[in-house]
Write a sequence for this structure.
């Protein structure tokens, strides 16, 4: 049977046309924010506010790589009107940034057609995550589940807060916000909450923490991120110094709803590492690594294990458990320079000098020409001498990290 080329060509053209339609539909709304809301009501669509500024790299990456993505374009074309506004140059942008406390860019605010807030998020989102975000907004609208923000862009905001977003030339000391908050009868009100998000007064930061579930329910987690990170950093260290791993677990469970998946994957390892740096309890740290799946690939885990190797050099049981992991990786293929270096250090600290020398021989054959490599041949000379002299005292061994590209989103 001969292929029906005409039929195939029609199918291809239809697919291409559909792609073109979605690409065209993703174009931002032209006009004021009020006009955008009117259009959204007319089309019965949600509103995606994209707060950006010229020179914002993640904003440009979103425009170049994410919004044109077919899956993103399709989701937007079907359900959203995009209102894109510059927070530095446009009054709508300035007012919306103030309204929703934009502290990172791009900031995305999802509203229903009447302007009721569904969610806010900040930062770069890859296409898959952005589609999920858009679908979440759609689901929240279906549930009629809204944040506590009203639709008024012109509240009587305290001057020290408002000046961050709309420059008038007036001078405001941030200390003004402390007295402002002290005068508020209801710290859950929109303006009081927003003023609190940009301060670091301990009494009001602690108030947020003590009322965290309520504040997440009212305003979402995104605006709470900075405050919660600051508190979690302090508490993680405190629990570490007291070796209270269960208290750390309770903390992590309590604050988890503040974070989206991406932010949790970034900050969770930092909190657990802060705990370990104070506790020096390697067994507990390794358990937490596995319990929370802190490092989903070997390169990340190897980087984390480095500090354990060098801080636990007098603990053979810990070193042997880590050695097993490196030997398992070795079975999969030749180790890279950072891993081979750590393998040498493990054998040296375990006083297995014969294996340390074998591992060193392999390391010395490595190519050290990579300009981004954290160590050079000269850096391992002392290690080589320590093996030859069977000396494990006063050895300056480096915690060499692998160069892992930063993933935006």
């Amino acid at each position: 049977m001969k292929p029906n080329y005409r039929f195939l060509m029609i199918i291809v053209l239809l697919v291409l046309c559909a792609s073109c339609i979605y690409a065209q539909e993703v174009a931002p709304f032209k006009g004021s924010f009020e006009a955008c809301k009117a259009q959204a009501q007319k089309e019965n669509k949600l509103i995606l506010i994209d707060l950006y500024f010229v020179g914002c790299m993640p904003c440009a990456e979103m425009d170049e790589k994410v919004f044109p993505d077919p899956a993103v374009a399709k989701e937007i074309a079907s359900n959203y009107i995009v209102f894109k506004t510059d927070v530095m140059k446009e009054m709508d942008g300035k007012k919306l940034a103030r309204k929703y406390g934009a502290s990172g860019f791009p900031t995305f605010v999802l509203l229903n057609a009447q302007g009721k807030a569904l969610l806010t998020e900040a930062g770069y989102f890859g296409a898959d995550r952005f589609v999920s975000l858009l679908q979440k907004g759609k689901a929240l609208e279906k549930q009629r589940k809204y944040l506590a923000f009203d639709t008024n862009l012109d509240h009587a905001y305290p001057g020290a807060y408002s000046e961050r977003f709309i420059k008038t030339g007036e001078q405001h000391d941030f200390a003004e916000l402390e007295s402002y908050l002290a005068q508020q009868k209801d710290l859950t009100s929109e303006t009081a909450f927003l003023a609190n998000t940009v301060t670091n007064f301990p009494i009001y930061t602690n108030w947020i923490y003590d009322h965290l579930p309520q504040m997440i329910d009212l305003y979402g987690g995104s605006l709470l991120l900075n405050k919660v990170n600051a508190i979690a950093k302090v508490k993680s260290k405190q629990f570490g110094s007291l070796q209270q791993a269960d208290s750390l677990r309770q903390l992590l469970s309590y604050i988890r709803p503040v974070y989206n998946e991406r932010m949790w994957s970034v900050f969770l390892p930092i909190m657990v590492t802060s705990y370990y740096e104070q506790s020096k309890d390697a067994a507990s740290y390794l358990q937490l690594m596995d319990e929370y799946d802190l490092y989903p690939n070997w390169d990340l885990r190897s980087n984390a294990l480095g500090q354990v190797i060098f801080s636990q050099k007098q603990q053979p049981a810990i070193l042997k458990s880590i050695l097993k992991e490196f030997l398992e990786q070795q079975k999969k293929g030749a180790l890279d320079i950072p891993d081979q270096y750590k393998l040498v250090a493990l054998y040296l600290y375990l006083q297995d000098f014969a294996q340390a020398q074998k591992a060193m021989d392999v390391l010395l054959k490595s190519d050290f020409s990579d300009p981004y490599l954290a160590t050079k041949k000269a850096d391992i000379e002392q290690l080589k001498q320590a093996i030859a002299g069977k000396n494990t005292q006063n050895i300056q061994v480096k915690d060499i990290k692998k160069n892992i590209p930063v993933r935006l989103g």
Remarks:
- The radius of gyration is 27 Å.
- The CA atoms of residues 307 and 347 lie 16 Å apart.
- The longest strand covers residues 46-52.
- Strands lie at 46-52, 80-86, 107-111, 117-122.
